[in-house]
Amino acid sequence: MIDDDPRGESPVRAMRHRSFALDLIRPLGTARGAIRRREGFLIAVERGSDGDSAGGDRGGAVGLGEATPLPGWTESREACAAALDGVGGQGGSESPLEVLDAASTPAARHGISLALADAAARDAGARLADRLADAAGVTATPADAVPVNATVGDGSPDETAAEARRAVDSGFDCLKLKVGARDVDADIERVRAVREAIGDAVSLRADANGAWDRETARRALDALAAFDLAYVEQPLPADDLDGLAALRERGPTDGAGGAVRIAVDESVAARGVDAVLDADAADAVVLKPMALGGPDRALAAALRAQRAGVDPVVTTTIDAVVARTAAVHVAAATPDVPPCGLATGSLLDEDLASDPCPIADGQIAVPTGPGLAGGAFEDLRRW
Ligand SMILES: O=C(O)CCC(=O)c1ccccc1C(=O)O
Ligand SMILES: [Mg+2]
């Protein structure tokens, strides 16, 4: 097929979606409550045939997408389902990406956008990462592997330290620890226990999921400065961009070393990456393709962040394997990407298909194409 539609925006010839529900092995404790189960939609599309195909009825490759909403970052499951149903009823005359709004239904838009991009990449015989990079004007060749962090949930100091130690023993050299689910003094003891268990050579991040007010955040950051954290993610509520900017500007405090770097996640989902960059609210931005309306939009946000001198960290919302693999391609297309929150497949008790992205030595492998993962998801393409 002639590759005249690099962004996969041709009309949809056929589209279907089905729902799924996947339990986590055990609840992931966060400051916003535990995540126990993920419910979403698997999407398959066939793009419209090219105008030049004489037969008039020739379809392209079947592309796969996933929409796994998580309120707080995306629309509700109901709103996602309604948006996907609306696309199905459209009749295929215009691109569904024009009618799906990235701000109000990012997960639905992610699912359709990914399915179209996978189909287009398969038709072109190219890896998704290469197609995303080309469309975004990235000249560097996408990576074959991406550094990742292990994700460690809330738990007692002993439980948390043991889980951190297991992650390091299995090859991770960057960990992200959930904080903010208990009071600051308890979290300080957890971080101390983890640092003692893993040693100084492992990079350590903490994610408060917006739990603290300004005064608590200052107290927490002052105390946590002793443990050499790479950054603290979302120490303040999503909308407090001024407070986040002020935390960054704060100089070293009495003898405690330099200020702790700030990453933002919920602020990106709530206000968009440009508002975060304009407010000077972050040293790093956490980019979840599911929350940003698609892999292409996530990569564009990553490149804008880099141009502003801010580190883009690509992560999942604990998605099933199709969306996780897409996020790996986004990270691969981002030049010099720092460790990303993509090692979340092991949190799930079951999955839609086996994972084509093995993790070793703290790096996740980027599948060879075409599309998302070559033949890896064949069973998912026919149902
Ligand atoms: O970043 C990671 O390590 C994994 C992803 C993660 O932590 C997460 C997963 C689901 C919902 C929210 C979050 C979060 O980063 O706050
Ligand atoms: Mg986060």
Automatic annotation (TrEMBL):
Cofactor(s) for this UniProt protein: a divalent metal cation
Residues at which Mg(2+) binds: D207, E233, D265
Residue ranges occupied by any Mandelate racemase/muconate lactonizing enzyme C-terminal domain in the UniProt entry: 157-254
EC number, UniProt record: 4.2.1.113
Pathway(s) of this molecule: Quinol/quinone metabolism; 1,4-dihydroxy-2-naphthoate biosynthesis; 1,4-dihydroxy-2-naphthoate from chorismate: step 4/7; Quinol/quinone metabolism; menaquinone biosynthesis
Active-site residues from the entry: K178 (proton donor), K288 (proton acceptor)
Enzymatic reactions: (1R,6R)-6-hydroxy-2-succinyl-cyclohexa-2,4-diene-1-carboxylate = 2-succinylbenzoate + H2O
InterPro entries given in the database record: Enolase-like_C_sf, Enolase-like_N, Enolase_C-like, Mandel_Rmase/mucon_lact_enz_CS, Mandelate_racemase_C, OSB_synthase_MenC1
Enzyme category, top tier: lyase
Top-level division of the source organism's lineage: Archaea
SUPFAM superfamilies documented for this protein: Enolase C-terminal domain-like, Enolase N-terminal domain-like
GO terms for biological process, alphabetical: amino acid catabolic process; menaquinone biosynthetic process
Key words of the record: Lyase, Magnesium, Menaquinone biosynthesis, Metal-binding
GO molecular function: magnesium ion binding; O-succinylbenzoate synthase activity
Function according to Swiss-Prot or TrEMBL: Converts 2-succinyl-6-hydroxy-2,4-cyclohexadiene-1-carboxylate (SHCHC) to 2-succinylbenzoate (OSB).
Family according to the record: Belongs to the mandelate racemase/muconate lactonizing enzyme family. MenC type 1 subfamily.
PANTHER family listed in its UniProt record: O-SUCCINYLBENZOATE SYNTHASE, O-SUCCINYLBENZOATE SYNTHASE-RELATED
Protein name listed in UniProt: o-succinylbenzoate synthase
Name of the coding gene: menC
